[in-house]
Amino acid sequence: MSDKEKKITIETGDAGKGTTEISEDANTEELEERALSVFSSDRNEDIVALVFCLITTFMVLLFTKWMV
Amino acid sequence: MFNNVLLCTHGTDGAKKAEAFAFRKLEEDPELKVTVLTVLDEDWRQMTGDDWLNSSKTHTTFLDHVENQMNEEIAEEWQRIKTSYSSAEQATFLQKTGNIAETITKAATELGCDLIVIGPWSKGKKFSIHSTHMGLRTTLRNKNLHPLLPCPLLIVP
Amino acid sequence: MSQLKEQMPTIIMGGFLLVYGLIVQSGALEPMAKYLHTHKTLDLQVTMTLVIGCIAILGAFVNAVRKPGNSNLDTFILQPLGGIVLILLMAMAIRWYAEPLMKIVSKGLEPTLGFKIYKVLNLNYVVLGILAGVLLTNTWGIPKFAGPGVKCARFVLKMGVIMLGARYSFAELAKLGGYSVFLVGFFVLGTVFLVLWLGNIFKQPKSMTGVLSAGMGVCGVSATVAVAPVVKAKSAEMAYTIGTILTFGIVCMFVFPTVGKLAGMSPVQFGAWAGTGILNSAQVAAAALAFNAVDIETLKVAEIFNITRVLFLPIIVLVLATWFGKETGQKLSFKSVVIDKFPVFIIGFLILFFMSSIGMFSPPSHYKGKYIDVSYNDRSQVTPEELVTLQDAMAKSEFSGLKPEQLEAVTNLIEQHQIAGNYDERNDKKAFDHVGRARMTQLQGTLAAAKGKEITLSPEVKSALKHAVKQVKKKSKTVVTLTDFMIWFFAFGLIGLGMQITKKAIFQAGGWPIVMGVIAGITKAALSFFVVLWLIKDVVLN
Fold first, then answer.
1. Of C77, C116, C221, C325, whose CB neighbour count within 10 A is largest?
2. Superfamily name and number for B4-155
3. Do C336 and B58 touch, CB atoms closer than 8 A?
């Protein structure tokens, strides 16, 4: 799976720095230190938040409305 | 007496006293090795406070800007030192980022310094609306600095 | 072995939660919970502590055994686990212990002080949580094991905002949206120009007034961070501005709810005022929850204003960039500022709002998740004691002053033990409902007449009738549960964000920014106070 690879690429864009600089291991730590959240990009964070919310909503509906 | 001095400055009134002292010594003894160290406070990272609206990209842009801006201001600061003290030409200038106490002591160890010179804590004017300093306001505390010291510390009164 | 040592805090917290959950389940804490008035939450306490405790211990052991990697599991679950558990533990301790204790203590102190501390300072669990977060950061610092977890605060707060979308209706959103665009637009632009003008008067550099105007006008530190690189602010200017805004924001968090309560503002008015006047957007949510933590009406209004401001931020960045760019020659395109920076989580908010509009959470006949249910149900019945009271009163002909319809409703209530339709009509749902609701209206009329002193009823009878009416007014379980989730998300997010406010950042306040910032901030807060009181007179949400 190219998952790991992909993540690093996103992180690069995030930091607003060149790809070459990032592919070196040394810089990723610094970038992660600087980043505000555990997510590799803001868009990812928003999308995951949305998905989580939909799951929560679905579970709530399931247990309080559809199964009652 | 001392051969290798680390002068820590960031342009405040207190630090200027330390500068004056170190460069006077340098004039007296040209053999003396003086390194001027300016630390970029890592606590800039905390200056974004409880902001949650901006993306990490905006934060990185902000921190990059801080870094560039500080580099510019530090360069100006060094220029000021060089123009005020003729002996400053012989000194080495060094800039580092990190926790202030840790960075100073680490630099001193790396350079093999036998004396660290800093300015005294000066009680600022109660209220001043003119910015006289650069970067973050911060106080170096004995409690944090002393346990780390690799060599004598001179606080120029 | 060192890996296990690193996980010790998490294991201890998890173990504590498990033990606590088991103690609660055994019922040993019931008397104390009764004293604290938290006994209704005991079931939730058991579930939450046991589940979180198990996850914490399991995760900690996985962390201890497994080699730390770079996979998604590591980044999103294993590493932040310690911090997440810590914040949850704080939230639970505050919600179930600190807040109730605060209430009891301030009630005890009332005779000596003459007022209730928690009411004046609005020390509910949200405010206490933020304070606890700020205190922790500035005393011990965020523990190392909690670092990655605290970073999740922003994510969870976003979830809270998205979930909030489920609580609006079309009419509400349209009406509030109109108000907020008008108010926020006016005050954002007004403050930006005020600061720029002040800067002109005091002859301050453009870079400073640029940062400060955005910070004071739009959303505090967020705007400062976004604008600083654009206007090429000097380091001292940024430090001063951020310090000023953070200090101002924390003061606002306490002053706003107190002033709002003293002025007798309605939840809607307060939400609008906080959403306009408070700078940092996390503190808007905090103040709204401080004003009213149980009923989220205030939060709903404040968040709409908040979202409006979020949408204004890129526009202001663009305007300031153009204004400043004239000199430096740099240009920012509309796309790079507005479209690339559009917060995607607002789309999530709209999705949940859409789901709510089509009646997924509660049918359109329900009003804000509340509805009337007159069908036969054990839970709708009055208590046996109340029934005896009513029968006695009937025997003593206490109801003689009632109108015939009202008397019929009371008679039927005694007969059926609850408000309901006619038993014979129970298969014709429509007719049954209709009669039941009519009876409820009659009972409410009776209570109103008793209140207006047209008739006299003994307090016991009144309370029995009130209870009967209350029993058929049900809250939609779906909406209640969703709201609970949302409030926990907000609490988690706000505590985590509180942990990111350091005293060093606050103490940077100073210089010209503090002068101009205080002038602009107070002007904005005061003006918006009057405008809100004048403009939003009626309760918009009804």
1. C221
2. HUPs (3.40.50.620)
3. no
